[in-house]
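Provenance and format

Records in this collection were gathered into a single text stream. Each protein contributes a sequence line and a token line. The two records reproduced below are adjacent in the stream.
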Amino acid sequence: MQGMPPKTSAPNQAPENLTQILSDIVDAPVECDGFARLAHSRLTSAGIDHRVMRGVLVSCDNPNRGISPHFWLELDSGLVIDYRARMWLGPHQEVPHGVFTPDAFSHWRYEGEEVSIGETPEWVLEILMINPRDYLDDQDSAHARKS
């Protein structure tokens, strides 16, 4: 539009910085809804505007291949954040993963609506980050030390 300044992204919305902000939650033992909650909390704390989305992710090549329901995040810049599609669709390079523009995975279509998930208490976020294997390993180590 004439007279409107060009839309620019804030410096903290660069993909490299997003990757850093999300780096310690990428491997959290949660599914897409839990990851959306964790990422929402991180992005909110970092002051990054975003939307939590709920809907479907469908292959354009095979409409029978997809996930429903599915949660992901979108930024005003057009970037998508989805670290859980491969959990259900397999660890294939063509399946969306990470922080990306939709055209990076043009054979997939996200359809959904914004949802409000509210603020999650810090103690709940900490629980979501616990890997049960780590807890069991710690218990086994403690038991071995007592023996």
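Adjacent record:
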Amino acid sequence: MLRKLTIFCGIALASAFSPAPLAPGLRSARYQRAVTRHAVSPKMVWGDKDYLIAPSILSADFAKLGQEVDNVLAAGADVVHFDVMDNHYVPNLTIGPMVCKALRNHGVTAPIDVHLMVQPVDRIIGDFIDAGASYITFHPEASNHIDRTLAMIRDGGCKAGLVLNPATSLDYCKYVMDKIDIILLMSVNPGFGGQKFIPSVLEKAKEARKLIDASGYDIRLEIDGGVTVDNIKQVAECGVDMFVAGSAILKEPRTQDAYKTTIDKMRQQLASAKVAK
């Protein structure tokens, strides 16, 4: 009797702490999206540019979000970056999958890069997949099983990646290099926009680039926090090829021309960057 009770309790606990299974229709829809997305060539997924600029909508005017995103993409941005915060993993509360879906319904076709600063992380991944996310990254500290979380993202048809805080070790990436498409390095402490760049992350970027090159996998090295026209060249020379910039781009005057001026200056700096081999 005791053995039966123990087995029953074990099953109950496993059920309670396991992600709920997807409904057949939802599973099928996500699978079809995965097939479609994975059938696209890597060049189309990442674009044919050596460097990608990804403005963060955290700095946008949310009263005119659709127009803001239209303007910054028309100004030359490559990717739309979402900073998703839950007021639990980080001390701020921002946006969820409904905003992602609204931008897709608005007509945004550019890649949407979702950076999850939430804990637990698994339960919201499916919502962002359904909302139209292209890339989903998360902090390893927020996942009970990093390998499983990465698999959830890829199985949903999105690019998957790990986000490392300034003091978080690259060791988290070493044994999942075959399962990640992005390594995102935080160059500020996560939670708020407009912070100053932490210079010590530059050495970390060099180490991350060596790790990526040694792996032989097609992995983007992204950086988020304090990226400006003045430092983007130095960051690129450390091996970074995808740049999140919020307040450096999305600021007054909020016009397409102003955004284009900043993005063009960033591209000029990137064109002169000399990446060490």
